[in-house]
Amino acid sequence: MARYTLIVGTRNWSSWSLRPYMALKATGAPFEVADIRLRQTDSPTTREQILKYSPAGKVPVLKVDEDGTVLTVWDSLAICETVAERHPEAGLWPKDPAARATARSYACEMHSGFPDVRDQLTLDFARSQEMPELRPETKTQIERILSAWDGALADYKGEFLFGNFSVADCMYAPVVSRFLTYGVETSAAVKAYMDRVMALPGMQEWRRCAQAEVDAGIV
Ligand SMILES: N[C@@H](CCC(=O)N[C@@H](CS)C(=O)NCC(=O)O)C(=O)O
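Above are the sequence and the glutathione SMILES. Below is the predicted complex in structure-token form.
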């Protein structure tokens, strides 16, 4: 059986790392996590540490060790795709082709978009935050995310965006945390969705690790 190691950044801050972590959790497969502290400027710097695992110099990174042959996968969406492909039993993409195409659109829209949400509502997983003065672009992006979530929840009528938990939910998991910690107002359906995401064992474990970083004064 393949041995997985997921290399992640500081849990309280690393939104990109949370996504493949949630995908791996959904498979039920065992995996190890290697934590790298972000924003380290003293040697070994964050970049020097990450470069030991991936030439791209960014986390997350997934190592797949099959009898000593090690595959390196980097970038959160590429890792989620690889995990979904290696574990079809986890149903990380909807079976229906149209639903799958839409779920992929959601995932990619998140991956390549919403820069102002990322910039103004930075991930601080374990702590409540004051809502900053939002730029018009940020407001538009928040509205787009909320209407996309409302739309999928109404269309697919499941617990998660596309019925069962999918890569789309993984990609938005950090935004769920942000909207809760910054107190973004949502519809009742979206609030219930966010609560279901936060109740997942993977999110609870991530929260425990983020809280431990806060308690240790690392973040
Ligand atoms: N598009 C990449 C972005 C990854 C990324 O920006 N990771 C940040 C941490 S959340 C990082 O590695 N920062 C370390 C650095 O830039 O030195 C992905 O989806 O994985």
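Residues 91-202 form a domain with the Glutathione S-transferase Yfyf (Class Pi); Chain A, domain 2 fold (CATH 1.20.1050.10).
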